[in-house]
Amino acid sequence: MSIRRIFILLAKEFKYGSRSYFFIFAVAAPLGLTLMVNLLFGSFFSGKPKIGLYDQGDSRIVESLSGMDNIDLRKYSSEDELKGAVERGAHGVGIVLQEDFDSRIKNNDPLGLKVYIWGECLLKDRVVIGAAVLHQIRSISGKNAPVKIVPVTLGAENAASWKDRLVPLIVLMAIFISGFAVPATSLVDEKEKRTIGAVLTTPATQYDIFISKGLMGIIVSVLMGVMILILNQAFNVQLGLVIIILFLGAIMACCIGLSVGAFMNSMASTYSLIKGMGIVLYGPGMVNVFPQIPKWVGKLFPTYYVINPLMEISRKGGSWETVKLDVLTLSGIIILFIVLTGIIAGRTRQQEA
Amino acid sequence: MSCRIIKTLILKDLKLFFRDKFFGLMSIVTIAMFIVFYFILPRAVNEKVEIGYYAPYTPGLLDVEIEEEGIVIRNVETEDELKHSVISRDFHIGISIPGDIHEALMSGEEPELFIYYSSEVPDEVKELYTILVNEMINEFSGLKMELTHHEIVLGPDMGGKQVPHRDRLLPVMAFMLLIMETMGLANLITSELGEGRVQALLTTPMNVTDLFVGKGVTGVLLAFTQTILLMMVTGGMEQNTALIVVTLLLGSIMLTGLSFYIASISRDMMSVIAWSTLMIIVLTIPVFSIMIPGLSSGWERLIPSYYVVNTLHATVNYNVGWGGNLNNILALIGLNSAFILIGIISLRRKIA
C-alpha cells in the first residue's frame, strides 16, 4: 500500500469518475430534493389554512388577515378568479367581502358574506378560517367577551414541521448516495470495462484501489452533507462535531459501497441493489417522517447513529454530551465495517490473482 | 406474425428478466414496500377539532357533549384527566375554566381561562385554535355577530368523508410501478441490441413484427401484473374493476412504447437510466396534482401520464365510472397509438 499511488488513483477517480451518471446523480439528487422540499413544505404543505379573498370595497379585514402568520392569504381582483382558484383547490375557502363591509360592522347593520368552499377542504380548516374571519370582524366591532385566554403547552418536545421531518432523509441521502453509490459503481464500472485488471498489473494493489475509491466517496459525501445542512439552515455552532459525524457517516457509506462493488459484476445488478438498499440506508429518515412509527424502529438501522446525532446537534442544539453514546456506537459499527471491507478486499485480490 | 414465435420470445424475455436475480427480487421488494407503506399510513383523515373541557364550578355552561361539523366538545371529570388527554392527543385542545370565573366577571375583572395544547401542535395552529376558543366563548357569552353566510361548496363536498392520504397515494404508487418497469424493459432491449442478440434472432424465422409484439407483450405483462397485484392487495379494485384494469393496461402499453423509444436512443444501461430518469421526472409531474390539488393549473394535461393517474384517482377515490372518464380513456387510446408508433419506428431504425 502506497500513499503516493493512492493519491494518483484518487486524482484519476476525480478526473474520470466525476463524469459518471451516479456521480452527477449523487450531487444533483440531494440538491434537487432540498429545493423541492423548501418549495413544497415552505408554502404548500405548511399546514396553514389557505384563504382566498376578493374585497369589493376597501375593508380593514384584508389587512388584518394578511398580518396573521397562521393563515395563508391571497387576494384576488375578481370573484371569478377567486372562484376558479377555490374550485381547483388552491384555497380551502374563498371569501367575497361586500363594498361597505366595514361601515356595516361599525353601524351594527346585518352583514352578509359570500363564502366559496372547496369540497375537499377539511372541516377543521373551515371552522378555524371562520373563527379567524370572525375574530377580525370583532376587532373592528369591539364586541369581545372580557376573558383573558392563557395558552399552556403540555409535554416536552415541540412539534416538527414537515420540512424538519424530511431534512434527516435528505441529509442521509446526501451522505449515502455519494458515499455508497459512487465507490460501488466506480468499482463495478472498472470491472465491466476490465480496467481494474490493467491497473493491477502496475505496482498498485487492490487495497490502493479500494482506498482511493473510498476516499473519493468520503470527500464527496462530506462535502454534500455539509452543503445540504447549510442549505437547510441546520448548521450551527458545533461545527467540528458535525463534521466529525459526517465524516464517520461517510466512512460507513463508503465501506458498504466498496463491499457491494466487490461482490457485484454488472452495473444492472448494482443499480438494482442500490435501489433495494434504500430502505435500509434511509430507514431512520423514513421513520422520522412518520411520527406514527415507534422511534425504536429507527435504532435498528445502522444509519440511525449517523443521522440522530446530526439532528440532535443541528435541530435541538445538542452537544458532545448528548450525542456521545450514538457517536461511540457509530464508531464501533464503522470499525466492524472497515474490518469486513478489508477482508472482502483481500478476498477479491486473491480472486483477481 | 406467428403466435408460436411470439410466445417463445415472451418466455425467453421473462426468463432473461428474472435470470438477473436482483431485477426479479427488486420487483418483488418494490411491490412489497409499496404495500407495507400503504398499510402503515392512516386509514382515515381526522378532520375535526376535538376539544376537552373541565368546568366543575360552572354547571350549565356546557352540560352536553357537542359534536358538530368540524368540532367535537367533550367534558372531562378532572383537570389531570384533561391534561393527560391533551398530551396523549385525544384532544387537540383542553379548556380549563377556573372556579372564580363568575366572581371575576361580576366584579368586572378579566378572568383567566387556560387552554392546554400538546407540545406537538405547531405554534401557528395553537394561535388559530386560541382564536377559535375565543370565538366560542364570545358565542357562549351572547356576543353573537349578525352575520349571514352564503356558502357555496365547489366540487363534491368531502367534508366528513375525506379521501385518506394512503388512498390518494394509491394511484400514484400504481403509476410509479409502471414507470419502474419501463426502465427494466428498456434495459433488457438495450442489452440485447448491444450484445447483438436481436440481430441474431432476426436471422431465424422471426420477423420484426414478431419481435415488437413479443417485446411489447413482455413489457405490458411485467408492468401490468405488478400494478394489478398492488391494487388487489390494497383493496383498490373494489369498485369500477373493469375500468381500473383497462386504465392500467393502457398505462402499461403507453410506458412500453416509451421504453421502446428509450431503448432506441440509449447505448448502455447507464444511458437507459439517464434517459429514464429524465422521462420519469416529466411523467411524474401530474402525480403532484393528485397529492397537492392546489398546484393544479391545467397545464399538466399536456403530459400524457395525466390521463392515467387522473383516471385512476377519479375511479379509485371518487367512484367515477366509465361516463366520467370517457374523455380520459379516449385520450389514452390516442396517446398510446402515438407512443407505440414512435417507439416502434425509432427502435426499427436502430435495429436497421
Key terms for this structure?
heterodimer, A: 353 residues, abc type-2 transporter like fold, four-stranded mixed β-sheet, B: 352 residues, alpha/beta, 12 helices, 6 strands, 63% helix, 9% strand
Write the layout of secondary structure elements.
The complex is a heterodimer of chains A (353) and B (352).
Chain A: H1 3-17, H2 21-44, E1 50-55, H3 60-66, E2 72-76, H4 79-87, E3 93-97, H5 101-106, E4 111-118, H6 123-141, E5 148-154, H7 162-192, H8 195-200, H9 206-231, H10 239-263, H11 267-281, H12 283-289, H13 295-298, H14 304-316, H15 320-352
Helix pairs in contact in A: 1-9, 2-7, 2-9, 3-6, 7-9, 7-10, 7-11, 7-12, 7-14, 9-10, 10-14, 10-15, 14-15
Chain B: H1 3-19, H2 21-40, E1 49-54, E2 66-68, E3 71-75, H3 79-87, E4 93-96, H4 101-106, E5 112-118, H5 123-140, E6 147-154, H6 165-194, H7 197-201, H8 208-233, H9 241-265, H10 269-291, H11 305-318, H12 322-351
Parallel strand pairs in B: 1-3, 1-4
Antiparallel strand pairs in B: 2-3, 4-5
Helix pairs in contact in B: 1-8, 2-6, 2-8, 6-8, 6-9, 6-10, 6-11, 8-9, 9-10, 9-11, 9-12, 10-11, 11-12
Explain this structure.
The complex is a heterodimer of chains A (353) and B (352). Chain A is an alpha/beta fold and 353 residues long. Chain A folds into 2 domains: 3-41 and 161-352, no CATH class; 47-141, 3-Layer(aba) Sandwich (abc type-2 transporter like fold). Chain A has helices spanning 3-17, 21-44, 60-66, 79-87, 101-106, 123-141, 162-192, 195-200, 206-231, 239-263, 267-281, 283-289, 295-298, 304-316, 320-352, and strands at residues 50-55, 72-76, 93-97, 111-118, 148-154. Chain A has a 4-stranded mixed sheet, sandwiched between helices. In chain A, β1, α3 (60-66) and β2 (72-76) form a beta-alpha-beta unit. The mean pLDDT of chain A is 80. Chain B has 352 residues and is of the alpha/beta class. Helix content of chain B is 63%, strand content 9%. Chain B is built from 12 helices and 6 strands. In chain B, α2 packs antiparallel against α6 (165-194) and α9 runs antiparallel to α11. The two termini of chain B are 19 Å apart. At the A-B interface, α2, α4, β4, α6 and β5 of A face α2, α3, β5, α5 and β6 of B. β5 of chain A pairs parallel with β5 (112-118) of chain B, so a sheet runs across the interface.
